What does this fold into?
Amino acid sequence: MEGRGSDAGRGPWALALRRLLRNRLAVVFLGVFLLIVVFVLAAPLWADEVAETGPNQEHTVEQITVDGEKKDVVTPEGKPIGPQWFGAGGKFFLGADGRLGRDEMVRLMYGGRTSLLVGISAALIATLVAIVLGLLAGYFRGWVDSVIARTLDTIWSLPVFLIGLSVGIALAVGGLKIGPLELSSGSLWNPILIISVFTVPYIARPIRGEVLALSEKEFVEAAVAQGAGPSRVMFGEILPNLASTVIVFFTLMIANSMLFEAGLSFLGAGVQPPNSSWGTMITVGVELLRIQPLLAILPGMMIMLTVLSLNIVGDALRDALDPRGKARLDAALQFEAQSGATRPVGEASLS
Amino acid sequence: MTRFIARRLVGMVAVLFAVSVIVFVVFMVLPKQNPAQSLAGKNATPLLVKNIEEEWGFDDPLPQQYLTMMKKVFTGELIQYEPRIPVSDRIVEGIPATFSLTIGAALIWLFFGLLLGYLSAIRAGGWLDRILTGVSIAGISIPVFLLGPVLIYVFANELEIFPNGQYVAFGEDPGEWLNHLILPWITLALLSIGFYSRVVRSNMLDVMNEDYVRTARAKGLSERQVMTRHVLRNSLIPVITLFGLDFGATIAGTAIITESIYSIDGIGLYAAEAVAKFELPPIMGVALYGAFFVVLMNMIVDVVYAYLDPRVRLGESASA
Amino acid sequence: MKKLGALIAVLVLAAVASIGLASCGGGDSADGGDGQKGGILNGTYASFPDFMDPALSYTAEGWSAMAEVYLSLLIYKHAGGEEGSEVVPGLAKEMPKISNGGKTYTLFLRPGLKYSDGTPVKASDFPYSLERMIQLNSPGAPFYLSIEGAEEFAKTKQGPIPGIKTDDKTGEIVINLEGPRGTFVNELGLMFVALLPKGTPIEDLSANPPPATGPYMITKSQPGKGWEYKRNPYWAKANGKAMPELPAGVIDGAKITVVRNDQAQVDDVERGIYDWMQNPPPSSRYAEVKENYEGSQFRVEPAISTYFFWMNTQEPPFDDVKVRQAVNYAVDSRALERIYAGQLVGSHQILPPGMPGHQEFDLYPYDIAKAQELIKEANPSDMDITVWTDSESPNNEAGEYFNEVLKDLGFNTTFKALNADNFATVIGNLSTPDLDAGWANWFQDYPHPNDFFQLLLAGESIQPTNNYNFSQFDDPAINKRITELGREQLGPEQEEAYHLLDEEIMELAPWAPFGTRTLSTFVSDEIDLDSVVFNPTFGHYLSSFEFK
It folds into this structure.
């Protein structure tokens, strides 16, 4: 067991990693998240080798042999078969997904790919845009800051869910075509872009605050004095110091985006068939709650576990990367308050 | 202060304008057909479609339609498509339900958020803290539209303790009003309790580590005095501002999913149905109403924050 | 500290006060009585009707809600099943005398009729109501444009319509059409032309329904939330005496609440919180309700409807009849019956059971091998198609099933699901690209076969927007048959001809029809199930509900 004294002389990232690894809860849930990722990546493997069916293949009128007995995949009254585990060789491991007789396990895996893809993409795009906006606003200040801050304000003041819902439905109906840019109505880009747009302010605000605080520090003055141009200062000097904030927010926003996508999909404005996500699976499952509760609980648990893991890991990252980061964040937020800005709308807006 | 308020009012107008334009564009520009076609029904002839277009002004150029609609918003004449009643009537009718749902849930989540956060903070690192943190984070990870139906299934169907939805006006039957709101309150509050307890906890921990708290202890103040005079006050300020913003957002009718699941005749449900039917007038009405509330609460929160936090108040005159 | 404490106290007080104030809205006294006979029925619909105005409503909910409130000159027999498809005199004394080669209809208003506010019913109320309906740009207006001068009126809104002549003294009403129209008798029985007092405002009265002529009247209408019925005092005093065949009704009134969650509706009817739900139980509860309550509280009702997959006959690959026939062979009704959880009865023809002219036949029993053979023979050039469906369950699942069927036949499909309110508008707009094939359904407007053929399969019905001939089917011989038959009054000869038309069209297979939907009656255990009457066009009759 190493003593505390050996911390001296290590780089900040190594120190952060050590702090993170010491947080057992975070390590466990990081593992859970990685397991989930492996689970969804293994989808084609399971589909081809074990279940021998695709996620959209229907077996409504078929029968399978379980322990020698023939059973309906879907009964004539529309009741889907329950989990068979390995009774049929792995087919319908978790049962059928509903009246179309598709393999629930396969759909759970493929649905997870969509959920994670949408969540991660939306968070990534939002983070990148937020970094640029935050840097520009915080460094240049003046009218640049005004325009950016006002725009973020406006997005924040929109009834987020209502607009997201409306745009989602409008896109689902007709898609969008502006010049060379085309979004077809079933495209996954629709929910990704909607979620990104509404996630940007969450991240851009704190980044802006930090940039405002950082740009008054001496090392920035020094760089400018040395003749560095704005982009070098922003991306070379300030950006590296934002790394911890960015990482933490990115992680937390993946979780946020996944929940947002699920909400949109529940009301028909998110992922469109034939794509499916855990959100769309929950919607169908809720309808069949009395007949087969697993159909709602399984995707619900998957979302919960993923979001839970990401939240725990994100929290732990925040503690690990800068134990006094909260104070810095607060200072950044104070800067905003002084300049008469507003603060993020809470998660209640997603309900 | 008055200059501050005046500036924010101007900002509010700008936001409302932006909202109205965005909603209008989404509904009129994105789809490739005009509403007349869906209003004309199963048996439509081109003449009927044309008449409907004339009646509603769908054949006017889009900017003119926007102006006509905005004029109707101000005169209260904004009419929805099916049935053709004023949007403002439906919004006003929906206010009691949405307010009851929101205010009740907000009080619950504020109370429990504070309680759990406080307990977590004073027992930081202990088993209680760990459990409460776990519960909190779990709470914010559940999708509402799964939690709601499960609660309904367990408490309304199996155990038959609570009804499975609908809203009963307070004036009609206060007992039933409460009875019908308990499950929706729990559903809506559960998500935010987790969030708030974590914010309270981390704020309190930060404040408890500050120098002035140590000074107060060193001065010989009892733990209770330290807590009440310094810690709570300073850690609650950001919480209250956050609460104000959340509350504004929820009252703005964005508890759409909760209202839909429990069939609560509020503004959120009205909006959800309007989106499903793809009707622009109700959405415009609800969106403007919503944006107004959000901006109003933002403004109130900033005023309160400035008032409570002397650093900001003093800082305002000193900042550029 | 003091400031903060005071602030919190103020906030809490304000909150409590505002809850109290805000919730004191719209409390009305709930009528709970359930005496012996009589009593107030507590019903529920899953949605508020599109309109609570007889001139405008064009949905099952609306017609069901207003069937016994607003009567037209003719009505549908207050019975279920096939009997309920018969048009009988309503406010008119007798069935119309049709003369002048089918172009002139003469009726007489029964004397002594009154509206629920005491105003006497006059013959001239009929043209007033019809003109009001057209002025409101009602979706029902096109049914009546064959009246002389009606089309001109629809354009200019300048009345009166020359084709309608009335005499208030004798009660005579003479309607002249531009040309003979076999469906006009049915159309006179629709609620669009229910009589309303002259001077009824020309605006949507959904929040404030006009005076009634039927046994019940709507006393309170809260769009989005619900409505209430009470007995029409002038039914007992006047109208009921003039129309003794129509029942006065046992219950004294009804209170209808909109409960959007259909699972909650089922639970509440089971528990007796509501006495009746207007819409059928959702697919996920249907089997359970049927098993537990059939015969005691639940009854299956036929609905005259056809559910089908349409194929665009104007573009490859579906312009080749062999491909369309292959699709018909490839659709398995058994799968669809499961998808609709037993609420669908499989069929492969256009006219559904209950429709005059229906005779069962099946040209395309399920045969996947035959289907694949036909596709190989046809060897279509264009294998990329888009499949459309509406997103309401289980229709979206039917659409997904269809999508897979086409994929199995070798097509490359793009699947699009649209929300129900937009669906018909989008696929009915011929400028929408890639309208290749998709799901659709059609519920009758009235029990006349022309209602199915004219709008959905006649070449002349193809129009650039609001098109319902989704297949864009345009066969000259068939078009001629449809028009000819449409001019004749319906009799056994015509019914046989319609059956043959059904077969002829199915040989050309513009659709792959897959079934007919059933609706249902589900009541609480306090209601006498056997007395409830369900009319295929107008739904459950309030007058037929009785507490046990």
Remarks:
- Confidence is low (pLDDT under 50) at residues 315-320 of chain B.
